[in-house]
Amino acid sequence: MKRTILALIILTVLIAAGCSLADRPTTAPAAPGEAGSEAAPVESAGLSADAAAIAQERGLSPDDITAALKVYQPTGVHDEYMIFASGGHSGQVLVIGVPSMRLLKVIGVFTPEPWQGWGYGVGNRVLDEGAINGRTIRWADTHHPALSETEGDYDGEWLFINDKANARVAVIDLRDFETKQLLKNPVVINDHGGTFVTPNTEYVIEGGQYAAPLGWEYDTLDNYNDTYRGAVTFWKFDREAGRIDPEQSFLIELPPYWQDLCDSGKQVSEGWIFCNSLNAERATGGVEKGNPPFEAGASQGETDYMHLINLNKAEAVFQNGGTTDVNGFAVISLQTAIDEGILYMTPEPKSPHGVDITPNGQYMVVAGKLDPHVTIYSFEKMLETIEAEKWTTDDYGVPVLALEDLREAQVELGLGPLHTQFDDQGYAYTSLFLDSAVARWSLGGEYADLHPEEPWQLVGKTSVHYNIGHLLAAEGDTVSPDGKYLVAMNKWAIDRFAPVGPLLPQNFQLLDIDNTGENMQLLYDMPIGIGEPHYAQMIKADKLEPWEVYPEVGWDPHEQALSPNAVQLGEEKVERNGSEVEVFMTAVRSHFTPEHVEIEQGDHVVWHITNVEQALDATHGFSIPGYDINLSLEPGEAATFEFDAEAPGVFSYYCTEFCSALHLEMTGYLLVKPSGPTAMTTE
Amino acid sequence: MMATDKFQKIIGPRPPHDELAARRLRFLWPTLFFAAAAILLIISIFLPYWSLVLHAPQYPNGLMVNAYVNHLEGDVREIDGLNHYIGMRPLGEAAQLERTVSIFAIGSLALLVGAAIFVHSPWAALLAMPAVLLPVVFLADLYFWLNNFGQNLDPTAALSNSVEPFTPTILGEGLIGQFRTVAYADFGLILATIASILILVGLYMQRRAYKPLVEAEEREGEA
Asked: Is the residue at A24 inside a domain?
């Protein structure tokens, strides 16, 4: 009897499964034998019998099949877009192709990266720029990458990214996808609202986060209101030099409200900067002392403050010497910012996260985080209100414009709205952290004609998996977004991938936003197993023009110029000057010259290597065991590294890239002769 | 008197005015052909004479070397790098003398062809013949050097065991290791070849124009 029931159940399940499969329009149960025949049946979806059979076997729905077709790139076909994503705690930047969602590169930034030799002989001097109080910091909590812009549009030349944990900013050159500069902010201890650029990349903006006494000073929390301060830093970027110039940079002192994300005004609002804050309550925590914990204390009030900053006026104050000096850095004091009309504020729904400026620059969109709305502020109304001098002040005397005077609209989207981006069809997209969804909503004003919906209205929501943080649309934070693709940067993957232990990867989900209306098809899940990437930007791939090889043999990538220490073929040598030994070496398939380097224990060694190759992909590595050295020498690259030959012995250096069929033969001996007779004895 | 006679004989007859007026084109043709040939030769100096493309899986765009009469262009460095595995000398070491004198030599050939315009006797053929032979001489020299390089591989090279000495293909396809090679005559050599044909046709036309005059003079002389 039991057996009969079991059989019946199995039969029912099978029939149900068969029915559900039969419902799918793409299923074509053609026998494999028929597939190759000339009369192979073609289904309505245009699938061959073979493809239909595969789809059936794998249980793929028609949506799955279209998703697969939208992301698949045949070999050799390049992606249309590229994502530059924060690598989160890895301290690196990820480069990802769209729509394939293939990882193309991990750029070494704040953290050593052995393949690129980053921190193992190349890039050491860049990494050392990120030292704090003499201590090397070899990790970073990278948050927000920013591509350089020209007239508000990505130009594909430079990339910036911040390190929230240590308030550092990095400059990456997109000619060779290498980091060129790290900067430690000498005034603030950590940052968050960075990096963002002004529309022509005049400034790289780094907003602060947790308030502290400026300049890394000490004070007790009792003095929080008086000596703890927030800040926003404007790093001046010198495009010609390819470096941020700290001498031309300045910082604006802000009330201790925990400034959060910022965005740069564009078009009509160019010259203004907008920053959120999340602790207008000025909670100082101390849950262990019976105080409300920060999470409650900082969320008591109904509103926090959006900071409205007039950059043009701030720049004028800086240029006229109206700054004070903190740790050698120019600071516009809070009082000066108030007096000179640099700083205004307006309330925003409590504990907001993103402030995002529409492509035309007319609206500031603030997502509520603890409020189910996005609030849209009008830049024009802001100017009018300031013009009319209609404001109250906060405890520090900062003019506070009324929310009602600036508000253009409010749209209820769902729970936990965080960040907003835009497309080319008059829609905005907001991530909903608590709902685990992406909301599409319609813009008003001059965007109202672009879409059929009423302005300022929720259009549709698509579930993502899970707990989305930032999102990014193709060029979705520029003056001319492309639409097409959107990536949900999900914090939690939970069940999306095969289990890999308790620490789960993040999940980037690609959505198709090309069609208007309610539906945004989910196309692809990409696991990120390297850190928590906060933000990313998506640029049209053809805007990037990276070098294939370095322009000339003997190139110093750090200076982007010929190296004075470049070594040409035939000019290799080893020079001794007292206890300093200088090695001039070349690398070419498949040998180093010289292959014997004989030095003495205690020598200080300065080693120059030039990869004299000019062929695509003819990269050589160079490692010395026991000395923590591993270089990546890309075609044409000249590198210099130094070490003290403390340990005597025989060290076989070798090329760590499989550069040719004779790669294993690409080696040599470093002979470090023990100094003094005692060193020779073995015990 | 003898010397002048000889010179007259070498430069050949000048067409009489009435003859020239009556058959202008007949006398003009050889001049045009020779002049065109001389110009093509000069142009050819600026174009590659011979090119070689190497195809291998790891070079999706192929590797190329273009041989001009006085220098090499293209992926010479990379090809030299590859050749060192089989012990072939760098391409730059080949035909150094030829490359040094080539511009002067081809310029001279063009001048000689130009001179042939004014020599209306069979001596014109002697002046123009070096230019006619240029393509053949070029290919012969190329063969000499390719053979010399291919046959004289460094026996201590890394791949000397797996690649036997060989003569690279001058024109057409060849195979060395994983490389399929395609060698072909490039624009410069094609122009030089056209120049050769133009010269030959010009010589024929010149004979056709002036032979009756010479024969007439001879008949006069006999009379």
From this structure: yes
